[in-house]
Amino acid sequence: MLTATRSGVIGGVSFVILGEGGPVTVFAHGLGGSIAETRPLATRVAGSRVLLDFRGHGDSDLQPEGWDYDSLADDLLSVADAVGATQAVGLSLGAGALLRALTRDAARFTKLAFVLPAAIDDTRRDGATERLHRLGAAINAGDARAVADVLLEELPPAVRERRGVDTLVLRRAQQVITKPAPAPRIEDRPLADRGLLGRIAVPCLVITQRGDALHPADLGRSLARDLDADLLELPDGGVFWTAGRETQDALAQHLMED
Fold this sequence. Notes:
Blueprint: E1 4-10, E2 13-18, E3 24-28, H1 35-42, E4 48-53, H2 69-83, E5 87-91, H3 93-102, E6 111-115, H4 127-140, H5 144-152, H6 157-160, H7 165-176, E7 204-209, H8 217-227, E8 230-234, H9 238-242, H10 244-254
Parallel strand pairs: 3-4, 3-5, 5-6, 6-7, 7-8
Antiparallel strand pairs: 1-2, 2-4
């Protein structure tokens, strides 16, 4: 397991740094996630890996007014600027936060990776929204079992049946219920104008997986096309469960220092 070499807090945002030297890469997690969620993605990446908890998540300050993409971008950029990050990885909601950050400076980072993007220039009005409502209700009720059941729905059936998976997911659920469920302050989307994507001229990687209703593979393919990015499309549950090593190797290769 990677061990943090140092940690810090800036503007109420908690972060840890793994490793040392360059390049410096910042990792942003998904909704309801934390540093623990992005740690596997950072495993094989060279240099210093900086993992943050958005406000309202993990060890960061509470955010009772709720989040929007501007506040997420603020958190991401405050940490990135403080540690001198030159590369960035966004997972799910973190990918949206990274897109919003790039509206302020499309050349802020020299390399980018978007893992399981969940939205680009539109809000989600499908079953993903209903799932998030159920998850939030379970978190606020302090019901770890109910939270775990919602999280398990995201996994392919074959993965759910593996020995130890329920225990691992329940352990994550027990961590999640220690804080109120992170809720959006307004109906928001990462980009108001998809034209921004054509202004991002640095090397990009998009990683998506099939059979994922929360992170549609079509959306990942579309983002990769508009960014002229490399695309890694994995099987069901690939990023964390069925092709974790392939994910780690792809990120490590993409984020190598030139």
